[in-house]
Amino acid sequence: MKTLKTLATATLFxxxxxxxxxxxxxxxxxxxxxxxxxxxxxxxxxxxxVEIVETYDLATVNAEAGVxxxxxxxxxxxxxxxxxxxxxxxxxxxxxxxxxxxxxxLSLPGMPIGAPGMGDDPDAELDVVMIGADGTxxxxxxx
Length: 143
What we know:
Protein name: DUF411 domain-containing protein
Pfam family, one: DUF411
Low-confidence stretches: 1-22
Mean pLDDT: 87
CATH class: Alpha Beta
CATH architecture: 3-Layer(aba) Sandwich
Keywords: Signal
Oligomer: single chain
Strand order of the largest sheet: 2-1-3-4-5-6-7
Number of domains: 1
InterPro entries: DUF411, Thioredoxin-like_sf
């Protein structure tokens, strides 16, 4: 019985390290893009539940989600009422979801080398931006 109690306690404490999520992330990607699938796998490895939807019409997904032109990544995900465009790192996304600001969401525009799913370089400088509820764009700090 003591072993079962220890196992239950260890399981409970290990769950606290996972991101705080209220829902499944739906990630929209071009069917021919491999880096998007790699980013989805990276997010899963970091505690996110990810459902992939393949589409050739990412422009409509971005427009409906409120991601402005010029700030779009190669895929866009929706989670907890937010849009997440591009290869946004899991730690930044987790912090954003915990803060729950009034915003459209986050974006890592383009396909920056070194981002998760694009080479996974932990020293890469990634310029993540927050898209405000009013459409304004501002840098979102890495820490």
